[in-house]
Amino acid sequence: MKKSQQEYFKKHLEELFLRRVGNPLKAGLLITSLPLPRYVDYKLSFKNKISTAIPIGQWYDVKKESPRRVLLIGDGENQIAPDTIKLTSNPQKIKNTAYNAPSARMSHIEKSSAPLFMWERHALQIEWHGNSIEIAMGIQAKGKIHWWEACRLVLLSEHENCRIIEMGGAIPVIHNDIETLTKYPSYRHPFLHKHNWINGHIYARLHSNGVCEIFAHHINSKFFDDGLPFEDVVPVIGFRTKTKKYPAIKCNNGILPSLLNLTNGIAVDFSEISLLSSSKNPAKIFVQNDFLITQPFKGAELFGGLCPEEVNNDPWIIHANQKKWLRGLARTFRFTVSLNPNRSPKVIRYLAPPWLYGMCEEFMPEPLLPVSNDFDCALTVSEQWLKKYVVKNGFEVGAMPRHIGKKEWKGRHEPGWEGEVPYAHFLLAWRKTDSQLFYDALRDAYFLADVCVDHATKTIRMHGYPPNAVALPMARIHGIFTAFLECGDPYLRDTAQAVIEASYRLHKNSWPRLAVGRDACFIRGAVFLYRYTGEDFYRKLARNAIDDVINSQRENGSFGDQGGGTGIHQWGGYISKPWMGLMAVGGLLDYLELFPSEHSIWACIKKFADWLMKERFYADGIMGWGYQHDYNGLRMHYNARTGKSYPLPGNTHWHKDYFARLMLMCSLKFKNPSYYFAWLESFYGTVAKIKNKPQHCSDHFVAQAVQYIPWLQSKLWNATIDTNGKINIKPFLPCKNGSGTTKICTPNGWLKILNKNNKFLLENKTFPLTALQPNSRKQYA
Fold first, then answer.
1. Helices H / strands E in the chain, number of each
2. CB-CB contact of 202 with 334 (8 Å)
């Protein structure tokens, strides 16, 4: 199977079309993050384009270099980006010296006049064929501009058409000088082991056509203490050209322009940064001391909803006009600079066709092709929810709500901060080649990486809570790491890895403990990192934590909610919810997909699935599950808000499509379709009711539906492609694989499956009917 993927890819590479996401504009750069099968040489190119190929990730089961992706970046030649573009394994050679990658160095802004108390402030100077621009990371602190100090520039790698660099430094909130040192010469110094800066970091890819991609990060992390929040601090970024003269640039209703045309043909694409500004949180752009200074927003703002409203009588955690910068808070400015008057700074992205993501195991850890049937109703309503409720501009651009509840605050809803939602964005974008979903996915991922991660502790904030509340169940990094796969910014990779490593240690801080439930979600991240990096460290971390989950499983097969600490936090350890168990075993299922021979893990999974089967109850004409099933073994729940107790599991069903993967995996493993039938009944009885009603969705509904409905569809049909392009299918229970028209995504498009006399017809090829016979369902009634 693995060889057939490799051979088919090599054989048909030059027939492959990538499709543009976004508008047809004049392009400086063309970019795609192309999924690769195992053992394929990543040194590819856009056809007839000077290109750079950057490997990303590593196949976990291949010892030699075998990247999961190749980031292809080609010269757009200032032409209108075509709808589709082809690839080649024979990269175009450079034929003239006009294509030399820009140089980079540190240039002085200013330095200390006291040689025995030295500090220096630098800019990143990028030069190409006589044109240059200097970029400086800074903050506005108490109305004054402070630039970064103690900087270093590092050359990361050089390619034939690209130079990749990073530069870092610390931006002081309060300046120190020799007078302060003299006044406080020893331990009484007010800034000794006291946090007093925001880290500035730039990752840049400098391309031979003069176009440069810049990822600029302001990060309030820590170094000498536990980190601190700051008052009256706002990030800025400064630009300086040789002429030090700039055209008049104005913000329209507080919103930054999407394009800056500077001197000598230098242009800056600000289309992403401009989304950080809004009329309610306006940007500023001004000239000071020869720098054109951009402040994308008046101040950081963060909406919390119910929790801060109940605790602080204000649904906002921070307001823009307060100019607070929380401990651990970051924000990324993504922009592109063209030093070439003959190249637009615009970057145009392309996506591969959906079947290639399937063949390269992006939708699941098997090379199965995507399938479409009536189960798509869950995907359709999820797409509607994602597109309708995303925050479209302002400091929180890209953020998604938790749910669309009864309470609404001037168009804002309870925030979610859910790390699998941007992953759902990406999965749907790949499946549909959808530009809005793709760009919203990147923005959502950066919002999570910047704002929802506390960069001082490398943990994820509890959704909606004021600082410094963190929550182990929030440690879900799929969206953040997938954004790294798509754009190659190492900040995203490093953030995802740090969160999982810190979460494992946070888990061990309170192990053994009464219960493990949703707080096992970080295991999914560890398996995901192993799957895409091949680093065995993450596999071992996951496997060790899986043993803790197994040891916390109750005798009846259920799991607690989460059970660390005492009082109200141990209270959750006695709750039994299908939802918490589904999150507890999520990482176990991920691990089994890579290592299916782990018998102790399967035993845990079966024990939980059997508990679910026994716990089903009848309501509204179907069998299904409730939100909570017992407390401390009792079929009662105490509601502290009302002071009353209520019977469990109630008469309302609860359904999220964690069930889809768990139940089908159990049916396949234990050769018992009853698990699958139980999911099917619950799905049709609940999800069908919210068809085309996105207001009834939530972040958890969307994240699980988009991950596991396509997973289930593909597993039901097991469609693969062989070396010659033949589609092979091995259906499971085809009579129950969904009703209506079923289609499989192939290199020839979405093709219908026709059932003719118990044989399936696809492209005039027949496939034998192979299915398990369903067992009696009465035992689970």
1. 18, 39
2. no
